[in-house]
Specification:
Blueprint lengths: L2 H9 L10 E2 L7 E2 L11 E4 L6 E2 L13 E3 L3 E6 L5 E7 L4 E2 L7 E4 L3 E6 L6 E6 L3 E6 L14 E4 L5 E6 L6 E6 L4 E5 L4 E6 L7 E6 L6 E5 L4 E5 L4 E6 L10 E4 L5 E6 L5 E6 L9 E4 L7 E6 L4 E6 L4 E7 L6 E8 L6 E4 L11 E8 L3 E8 L15 E2 L7 H5 L8 E2 L26 H59 L1
Parallel strand pairs: 4-8
Antiparallel strand pairs: 1-2, 3-32, 4-32, 5-6, 6-7, 7-9, 10-11, 11-12, 12-13, 14-15, 15-16, 16-17, 18-19, 19-20, 20-21, 22-23, 23-24, 24-25, 26-27, 27-28, 28-29, 30-31, 31-32, 33-34
Length: 504
């Protein structure tokens, strides 16, 4: 046995597809290649100071492997513990510090919320999936919530079991995917409130996650039957699949990369955590397969298509590992690990347009603790203050490339890109309007006359009720503001009296 083989045997290291390794010391469980030229070799993570965290938040304890947090350039949304239903917080990014227990929530679900996702084309629209078997889409006021939100813009009903996954289409407006524990994927046109595609015979077991590709023409899924599938949702057919992508019994994850390859995380038969890279055109063998450690937390992958960096956040871990994907062997290159003391309950990931380009920030995470949310900033150290165009190629902007109808008819389009050279300034978002198709069109002819007479009155009654509710809401807000002003006036007069005493 050679010296190197003896060393590997002593450490319990098997042959590794990532090339020459160095052991990083007893405090670190990760192997990495020795030296490789990359501008991201020195990326480092730093947690913000305490006063820039969001404190006193009761993060959800529900046993579900989603990230529990969604972020965009305006808001951070966090799934929280709620009695008698499901709720999530939506906080403007600047609303740091202690969050009051009475802070308004989004609380229309009757069961715990399992997943949330911000619309990529409207920073005020968010979708939520819940144990109550429904998907709800919400419009958040421009400056955040002043009252709890109980009425969604639209309720999407079609699943027979809890809905654990919601994911917006990356380039088509108002197209939303949901997946439930009924092993069904439904693709909705949120603009009409209709389920337009129902993929109910593709999966025979629970779906762990779903990911759209770059232009939204394909999806890939990981499921409990240990299969990774690449699916054309409009043709409702499987394009490629791999049985036992990871042989372990614990949950897997699969995401599309910008070049069309699929990246997966899972577990080996010996319960070691693995990552792998696959080409959908030939899924017999992985392009790369890497064993990491024996921790049992599910690895959630977050991918940046602009820099080709994948960040792996394990649930229950206290670290974020990051890797660079390239087209040269060994394809998946370990970069570094950000470590902290506290384990993470969930993680939010900021889209590229929400980052501070002046500080060379290439990623920002929102780490959920038991009672707080802590932003973590990843930066590339640079001496120059100039815009670093190699770190910030044009990135996906907030404008949709297609309308929902165009996508459902078979068109594809890549994301519309924007430059971050002068920073991203959020524009005015248009309100989400749901125009439901006339349900009378599908009724039997005999009933039509009766229905035509009754519908206008019902519509008028509904409008009247909505107006009254809106009026009540406005009056409540006015009263609340007046009460605040009265309290402040009293406080001011007391302070003036104290000043007068001191001056005397």
């Amino acid at each position: 046995m050679t010296h190197e083989e003896a060393w590997k045997h002593q450490l319990g290291v098997t042959s590794c597809p990532l090339g020459p390794l160095v052991y990083l010391g007893s405090g670190c469980d990760t192997m990495r290649r020795v030296v490789r030229q990359s501008k991201f070799r020195h990326v480092f993570g730093q947690a913000v100071k305490n006063d820039q965290c969001y404190d006193d938040i009761r993060v959800s304890r529900v046993t579900w492997d989603s990230s529990f947090c969604a972020v965009n350039p305006r808001f951070v949304a966090i799934i929280i513990e709620a009695s008698g239903g499901g709720a999530f917080l939506v906080l403007p990014l600047h609303k740091t510090g202690r969050i009051d227990k009475s802070y308004p929530t989004v609380c229309g679900h009757t069961g715990p919320v399992l997943d949330i996702d911000w619309c990529p084309h409207n920073d005020q629209v968010i979708a939520s999936g819940s144990e109550d078997c429904t998907v709800m889409v919400w419009q958040i006021p421009e400056n955040g919530l002043t009252l709890s939100l109980t009425e969604p813009v639209v309720i999407l009903e079609g699943h027979s079991k809890r809905v654990g996954i919601v994911a917006w289409h990356p380039t088509a407006r108002n197209v939303l995917l949901s997946a439930g524990c009924d092993n069904t994927i439904i693709i909705w046109n949120v603009g009409t409130g209709e389920a337009l595609l129902n993929l109910d015979d593709i999966h025979s077991d629970m779906i762990y996650n779903v990911s759209w590709n770059r232009n939204g023409s394909l999806i890939c899924t990981a499921s409990k039957d240990k299969k990774v599938r690449v699916i054309d949702p409009r043709k409702q057919e499987i394009v490629a699949e791999k049985e036992k992508a990871h042989e372990g019994a614990r949950p897997m994850r699969a995401i599309f990369l910008a070049d069309g390859n699929v990246f997966t995380t899972g577990f080996s038969r010996m319960s070691e955590r693995q990552l792998a890279l696959w080409n959908p055109k030939n899924m017999e063998e992985p392009i790369a397969l890497h064993e990491m450690d024996t921790s049992n937390g599910v690895l959630l992958p977050f991918y940046d298509p602009d820099t080709s960096i994948i960040y792996l956040c394990g649930k229950g871990d206290s670290s974020i590992r990051y890797f660079e994907i390239t087209d040269e062997s060994p394809y998946v290159h370990y970069l570094n690990t950000f470590s902290s003391k506290e384990p993470q309950r969930g993680m939010g990931y900021m889209p590229k347009r929400g980052l501070d380009v002046n500080k060379c920030e290439i990623a920002r995470f929102f780490k959920l603790h038991e009672r707080k949310c802590e932003p973590i900033i990843m930066t590339v150290p640079r001496k120059s203050d100039l815009f670093q165009d190699d770190l910030y190629p044009d990135t996906a902007g907030p404008e949709a490339a297609l309308e929902a109808e165009e996508w459902f008819e078979g068109r594809n389009a890549d994301p519309l890109l924007i430059s971050l050279k002068h920073g991203y300034i959020p524009g005015k978002n248009r309100d989400l309007k749901v125009v439901k198709k006339n349900i009378l069109d599908s009724k039997p002819t005999a009933n039509k006359k009766c229905d035509l007479i009754s519908v206008p009155k019902k519509t008028a009654d509904t409008a009247s009720v909505q107006n009254e509710a809106k009026l009540d809401e406005i009056l409540k807000e006015i009263k609340s503001i007046k009460d605040t002003i009265c309290n402040q006036d009293e406080r001011i007069s007391k302070l003036e009296q104290q000043m007068a005493k001191i001056a005397a």
